[in-house]
Amino acid sequence: MSDLDRFPRPAVAVDLAILTVTDAGGPDPQLRVLVLRRSDPDGWALPGAFLRERTTVARTADHVLREKVGITPHATIRPRLLRLFDDPDRDDRTWAVSVAHALPLPESALRGARGRLAGVTAGGGLDGVGPLLFDHDAIVDAAIRDVRERYEIRLRYVDVGPDPDGFLPEPFTLHQLRRVHEAVIGAELHKDNFARRMKPHLEPVRGDDGEPALATALRGRPAALYRRAR
Questions:
Q1: What is the pLDDT of residue 76?
Q2: What pTM, to 2 d.p., does this model score?
Q3: Nearest of 160, 46, 168 to residue 105 by alpha carbon
Q4: Can you spell out the DSSP letters for 58-92?
């Protein structure tokens, strides 16, 4: 018997906090998190799976996306490692450690996905699903803090790029871009300050005649269209 066999070992789970912004570019964008209904035990939880023998965390994350969520992983889907959640009492079924990830995706990547997209409140909670099973509320909190940090216009003139997780499809107006950032961080942003900080990271969309392309306006003046600077 190896000395290592004398030590008990925890089960290892890979849990994914999948985030998106619904209606990005529309009148009511909202940050949401995908949760799945569990029957044993009963309640809502993040999609996840236990690590099987001789496999990897990355393969297990792909398995969760395919088998639990129902979407096909591809090269641009890259979960972001948050941290380990290792409270010995986090799962009353067994001693389990969670390798928790955040996965921001555009809404289009979640078409046909199983589960429910629960809205995120300004305070960082989830609307309408109650407490999640295990310690998944703590994982959601970490994932929301992570994405909000990337979208926040920070103080002391430190800028962030436009929509770093690509929730908003191109082309877009500055108004649409600001509304997506506001949906993520859960607070309003100053219109002029936001435009000033974003414009260096954007390039205008031009028509065949070389003139700036404009969005069709239902009311007011048409707005210029932009895309992320290449």
A1: 82
A2: 0.92
A3: 168
A4: HHHHHHIIIIII-----TT--PEEEEEE--TTS-T
